[in-house]
Prior knowledge:
Elements: E1 2-4, E2 10-12, H1 15-21, H2 28-35, H3 38-41, H4 49-59, H5 70-90
Antiparallel strand pairs: 1-2
Amino acid sequence: MDTYFNNGFRIKMTKKQALSISHPGDCLKDVKRLLQNKEYKKQFNIIPENLIKKELLESGGWEEFELADTEENLQRITWIAGCNIKENINLY
């Protein structure tokens, strides 16, 4: 499973991972747990930080001044990717 973003990058996660971070209630603890997974997190080594920021800005959820923290941005984009993947799972 993976999800593509408008700014030319994709984030890969399994169905199980997507479901673990996209659920009712606060998902932050689960997102942080996924980001501790070295295999999952290494994909961000090839995604330029400015593309992640641009994607978050275009989502309309944050203003530029809110996107100064790289780790928080990884949490945000991970959560969005999980939600997108979960939505696509439900389509099939």
